[in-house]
């Protein structure tokens, strides 16, 4: 399993908009992606990915290749969350 994790590329993780709405969280160069609907219902999933990514990055070592990938998943999930949640009015 560690051999497979060492092949992860943090530079390939990206949150991108999709035609017709929603987002895709691209996870690697092969095209694996998490497709997110244009809905606030996806925000809890992204919150979980932000936390899990940060936790795993620390667990495996942030300077390692898998750690950098997990950190990128966390960061891009946070960006996707901000895009889906949009601006909020403070009352």
Q: Total strand count, please?
A: 3
Give the termini separation: 49 Å
Radius of gyration using CA atoms only:
14 Å
Q: Which percent bin holds the helix content?
A: 40-55%
Low-confidence stretches: none
Strand order of the largest sheet: 1-2-3
Name the structural class.
Answer: alpha+beta
What's the total helix number? 3
Helix and strand element order: HEEEHH
**Describe the biggest sheet?**
3 strands, antiparallel
The fraction of residues in strands falls at: 5-15%
Based on Cα principal axes, name the global outline: globular
Could you report the average pLDDT, rounded to the nearest whole number? 89
Compact summary:
This protein is an alpha+beta fold and about 90 residues long. The chain is built from three helices and three strands.
Give an overview of the whole structure:
It is a single chain. The protein is of the alpha+beta class and 91 residues long. Helices cover 47% and strands 13% of the residues. The protein is built from 3 helices and 3 strands; from the N terminus they run αβββαα. The protein has helices at 2-5, 43-60, 65-85, and strands at 14-17, 23-26, 33-36. The chain has a 3-stranded antiparallel β-sheet, with helices on one face. Helix 2 (43-60) packs antiparallel against helix 3 (65-85). The longest helix is centred in the last third of the chain and has 21 residues, at 65-85. The chain is globular. 24% of the residues are buried. The model has no long low-confidence stretch (mean pLDDT 89).
